[in-house]
Amino acid sequence: MLMRLFSGKRIPPVAGVVRGATGTGCSGRVLGVLFGAVCLVFLQGCSEKTSSRIPLLSLPPSSDFRILQPVPALPRKVQDSKHKKPPYIGLLFSIARPRPGVVVAVGAQSVIWRIRESSGQSILIRPPVKSEFYKVIFTDPGHGWIVGDGGTILFSPDRGKTWSVVPSPVKGKFLQDIYFADARVGFAAGEKGTFLKTEDGGKTWVKLPVPTSDNLYGVYFRNHREGWLAGWHQTFLVTHDGGKTWSPVSLSVPRVTRQKPSFNTLWGKDSAVLLAGDHGLVYLSNDKGHTFNRITMPSEKDLYGACQTGTGRFVLTGEGGTIWGLEEGGRVRKVLPPLPADFLGVTCGQTHIRATGTPGVILLPKNPPKSSPRS
């Protein structure tokens, strides 16, 4: 999946200092860029040693959201070394909320951020392995999972504070998504039709065959038996026996380009199953996946993330700062003005959402619940 990163109109450079926006206190010369109602600044000539020159975003004071863009600080031994560390690219793929007041975001370059929402304190967690991390979930407030490149599977027993490697039956293939039907039965999906299953709470995983060699980007199971896989070139499969056998799901998909669109995200809860992907394609089932109806979106921007709030509203995120709210009855509402960012992951609470993406953006509610000292 190729991401369109930044756009905007240049304005003359202005000297200034930006502190705290990156979580490192980095200061330097600011170049301003206007993008609608959003201010985009580029930090140049940083006086403190960091590994990044990503553009910084800000929202107008009237917004219900705020933006964090934490940047890893370079260790002193790397600062003084002739061998420079690759710059931080700020590519965050997924975000999850283990408990009120705390979020965990993961991405490229082995990045795992753990953030207190009330203070904005961003802690870079040291991973047990170097990899690209594509998905993070928490099955309950204490237990978390990450999947990524090279068949990586990580587990956290302490709300995302520490992570350990779980043996994986695949090597050299990325895992894009992970989902648990309950505390013991879980599934993961990824590159070239890779599909994994666990029946012992994630201690051991086995690879099961699926009738496709296309990349799989989403997995969801209503229970131990009924589940779906979504991915490259309109791949959409259903199983009724826990993943032993699969059948294609037929959908009416409009032709936008010569290449078939991909389905990039899959979400479900209770009787609802939501599918979204390239060119703003969205399909919703309210009858446990028996039938799917297409929802017409206001734009054809690619969609990468989906979730549902406790109030029942679906939220979809994607390229160009896209955040759509799908209300009951199919009405689509814009949640946020366009941003020079791509929101690649989103998580929903009772009423609020948190999203993440490029350039190193973590979008949080302006007034989040306070986290406890033990969080």
Automatic annotation (TrEMBL):
Keywords: Photosynthesis, Photosystem II. Residues 174-292 form the Photosynthesis system II assembly factor Ycf48/Hcf136-like domain. Pfam families: PSII_BNR (PF14870). CDD domains: Sialidase_non-viral. GO terms for cellular component: photosystem II. GO terms for biological process: photosynthesis. The keyword Protein biosynthesis does not apply. It comes from the Bacteria. Signal peptide: none annotated. PANTHER family: PHOTOSYSTEM II STABILITY/ASSEMBLY FACTOR HCF136, CHLOROPLASTIC, PHOTOSYSTEM II STABILITY_ASSEMBLY FACTOR HCF136, CHLOROPLASTIC. This is Photosynthesis system II assembly factor Ycf48/Hcf136-like domain-containing protein. The lineage of its organism: Bacteria, Pseudomonadati, Nitrospirota, Nitrospiria, Nitrospirales.
